[in-house]
Amino acid sequence: MSKLHVTTTINGEEVEFLCTPAQTVLDVLRNTLGLTGSKEGCGTGDCGACSITLDGRLVCSCLVLAPEIRGRKVGTIEGMAQGDRLHPLQQKFLEMAALQCGICTPGFLIAARSLLEQNPDPSETEVRYWLAGNLCRCTGYDKIVRAVLETAADMRGAA
Amino acid sequence: MTAEMTMTDIRFLAPETLDDAISAYAAAQGAARILAGGTDLLVQMRNGVARPGVIIDIKGIGELTDIAEGADGSFTLGAAVSGAVLGEHPRFGTVWPGVLEAINLIGSTQVQGRASAGGNLCNASPAGDSVPAMVAAGAVVTVQGPKGRRQLAVEAFPAGPGRTNLAPGEIVVSFTLPPRPPGSGDAYLRMIPRTEMDIAVVGVGVNLTLADGVVTAARVGLGAVAPTVLLVADAGRALVGSRLEDAAVDAAAAACRAACNPIDDKRGTIAYRVRAAGVLLRRSVAIAAERAGRN
Ligand SMILES: Cc1cc2nc3c(=O)[nH]c(=O)nc-3n(C[C@H](O)[C@H](O)[C@H](O)COP(=O)(O)OP(=O)(O)OC[C@H]3O[C@@H](n4cnc5c(N)ncnc54)[C@H](O)[C@@H]3O)c2cc1C
Ligand code: FES
Ligand code: FES
Prior knowledge:
- The complex is a heterodimer.
- By secondary structure, chain A is α+β, with helices and mostly antiparallel strands.
- Chain A contains 5 helices and 5 strands.
- Chain A folds into 2 domains: 4-79, Beta-grasp domain (Ubiquitin-like (UB roll), Roll); 88-158, Orthogonal Bundle (DNA polymerase, domain 1).
- In chain B, strands 5-6-11-7-8 form a 5-stranded antiparallel β-sheet.
- Chain B has helices at residues 18-27, 41-46, 62-65, 83-87, 92-95, 97-104, 109-112, 117-123, 130-137, 233-239, 246-259, 270-294; strands spanning 2-3, 11-14, 32-35, 54-57, 67-69, 75-78, 140-145, 148-153, 158-160, 163-164, 171-177, 184-191, 202-211, 214-223, 230-231.
- The N and C termini of chain B lie far apart (45 Å).
- Chain B has 3 domains: 2-57, Uridine Diphospho-n-acetylenolpyruvylglucosamine Reductase, domain 2 (2-Layer Sandwich); 62-177, Uridine Diphospho-n-acetylenolpyruvylglucosamine Reductase, domain 3; 184-294, 2-Layer Sandwich (Enolase-like, domain 1).
- Chain A binds chain B through residues 1-4, 20-22, 24, 43-46, 48, 51, 54, 57-60, 62-65, 67-68, 70, 111, 114-115, 129-134, and chain B through 2, 4-8, 10-12, 14, 35, 37-39, 42-43, 45-47, 55, 57, 59, 84, 107-111, 113-114, 196-197.
- The site of one FE2/S2 (inorganic) cluster has 12 residues of chain A, from loops.
């Protein structure tokens, strides 16, 4: 089968790949590009484990077709840490044990970063609503919400 | 236009003009699907419900992604504008807070990044959240196909669950919301079994104009309780001329209950949905009236 050639920017680096017209971005990230940090929980937009940013906007990569990202800017969990330096959200999730099995974690981190970029001082309710599209079967959410709130406070203090 | 052939018969097109989109859509003779945010279409493709031979992404077309406020105060909203982009518009949410709330209720933050009012209308779910609010607003849909352009009221658009009155080859271009007289306000409320991420068991949109405390115009849209979203003209009539006294609001609530023809399912029984329709009407009227008082 002949394929489409797509050039895009992922985590600041220009990337080229071949895909079929109906392949999703999640599929290309994981299976073509080896970026397996984005997870597939459902494939239908319900769980948020596949969260990425597209031109800075939070979306589910399972609901975006690969040819749609031609010439756009994609952000994935692989671009969150700067080398060995974890993003403050990643550090806080570890310190506060805001994860158990971890499959939901990349999606929560990407979604939470996008929240804090828009709103550096969210209320607990705002955090819970913003993250309503991210499902976690293990933690019961409380530690995640607390970790996001504490990170926000730390980042405001540091700024 | 970027057109790419593959050996299989599936193709992805991203036209930059409406004319190119319409010719490609017509040329595909029913094998093509329009792609706006994809939050319904990709789910349907994954489930095997949709198997398009051609996918036409309309998000590169200016007219479908613009939000324009006319000199007369009307708004024209491109069919493919996402909920997140609409929410960031400096004016839209002040003029039409109910319509914006309804669109922003669709799915999660992630879904909002993509989902459009055009896709919500074309998907033709009886429970589509933006539709009752658009009906209440008196929005008009502009559609264009091989035979040209036409306009129809939002309430005339759905034909049944999953079916629309689009003619073959027609694409939804935009929604036009009329100018707002002073003293106007709108609201949309839905009832869902959870607090987020669920499908409405009832949705009610209300749009009111008041002058000196008297209702001079009222429209009510009702969702999720019949095969299509409905305009409840009797509910609007019950409110016009009143000062929103209990008797008038009771009559409007009764009109909403009478308009219901719902299904019985795990989200809500018939009796529950009918009753909730009346309750939501009252609450939406109260919010719309409070907003009207501020304008
Ligand atoms: C997790 C999740 C939660 C959801 N929650 C809600 C909810 O709470 N409330 C709700 O109402 N919906 C909900 N939905 C459904 C969906 O998000 C909405 O219906 C959304 O508005 C669809 O818009 P879209 O731009 O993504 O449409 P698309 O998927 O791109 O298109 C939908 C359909 O319309 C056609 N189409 C799109 N645009 C046009 C056009 N301009 N002209 C002609 N045809 C067109 C497409 O071919 C397709 O058949 C949810 C979906 C998901 C995945
Ligand atoms: S895998 Fe994309 S939302 Fe679940
Ligand atoms: S930690 Fe297991 S699903 Fe969230």
